Amino acid sequence: MATSSPVWTVLLAVSGVWRHRACLSMLPIIEALLVAWCATLAFRIALVVLRGSWPDRGLARHVFPTLAGGGTILLLMSSAYAQMESPLAIGLLLAAAYSFLRGSRWGLVWLSFAALTRLEMLPLLALALVFAAGVRKVVDASIAAATVVAVFAGFLFWQFGVVLPNSMHAKSIGYGLSHSDAFGQFFPPRLTGHFFLCGLLGFFLCVLIDCSFGTRPAGEKDFRWLPAISFSWGMIVILEYTVESAMMFDWYLPLIYVPLLLGLLLYRPAGNASLWLRGTLLSTAILGLTTIMIHPVKSFARLLVPIVRGTPEAVGQFDGFAGFRVHQYFEVGATLHATCPSGRVMSPEIGALGFGFEGHVDDAFGIASPLALAFQPLRSGAASGGVPAGYVHALHPDVIVSYDFLATEVTNDAELMKEYRLTGITSAMHSSTTGRQIEAGWMGSRHLNVFVLRGGRCDTGAVASGLGNLRF
């Protein structure tokens, strides 16, 4: 029931044909290849743009492509977690951009797949289709792109009764952010955030002026508008998340920063642009580029430590033990599938758990199970995104899986604790150097809790025995 990324969901379903463990072991390799693909495309895009803009300036032709490719690598690797579908979405976006720059109208099809990999790109696809409506000989490509979107929208409606997933709506309810909190997610902290914002807004204003009054050569193959549209789309997504008061996780930030990066690096003013406009574009671009890269450069420096050491605890200290928690969820899911495949499982984090358990999974947060939104945000004062006790009372799932931090409403409900048997799995990992245990639970959680309904579809003893054999 994962609807937030239609293309990625289909690819995961196809990958499920093979053994899960083998597939999981391949994911880091696939991710590395996708990051390399993105960097190569970013380099090629910069090269094509600069060849058309500064044909006689050899230094710029080397420096700017290197910045575009290297910046893309840093942005993709700067997140605290594995990127999930982000590199694929960005790779498809860059493939569309490169196709446009080479004069091909079929970049619209690449862009449609990018939009269905991460739905934040739907506004960008809409912008491109509006622009394409005024360009000759792109009707067939526009129809093909619209057909791709229609097919996936039909699939979602057939499966879930919705045309677009409710992921952003669920995040705005579950986390309860204010508009200012949502807006602040996209900018570096403290003083640099103000410089970043001023640089982006100044650059955006100058781009609007230049696009409105600047004179460019006409022609179907002139795609110098691409950096402007890319940058505008990045700003639109920031506005969209701010209006919705939705949570933007760190591992999705490259989806916004890469288009901003390309716009800042590659936009060239029109031939008749005034000196003050050229100077303002350059200064605001430098300001935006400098501040946008502070976080990824620092994160990349931190990433070198686990790469050099190569120990699980070094990796855990970098990613906040996210990889360890994913591993725990997957192993618990696989154990539940082996001991109670017909059971109904509920969890506020369904990804790795649902990958290991192949039966019915209810999303307590509400992204994949919209009925849960009636009980979010939690009224008890418990942590945002936790398991609502009212939702458990409504469905009575056979199993509930959650870390301590997200299970407080369940553990504090005396009636539920009588109905369920609790098995707590330690959330500590063993150090490969000292042999001691390292706390790796979510927000200080000491256990991954598994609640099994007494008298339900699952044999409580069999489940407890299977979970007791797990070692981390």
TrEMBL record:
Superkingdom, natural source: Bacteria
Regions that span the bilayer: 29-50, 62-82, 108-131, 138-158, 193-213, 225-243, 249-267, 279-297
Keywords: Membrane, Transmembrane, Transmembrane helix
Protein name in the entry: Uncharacterized protein
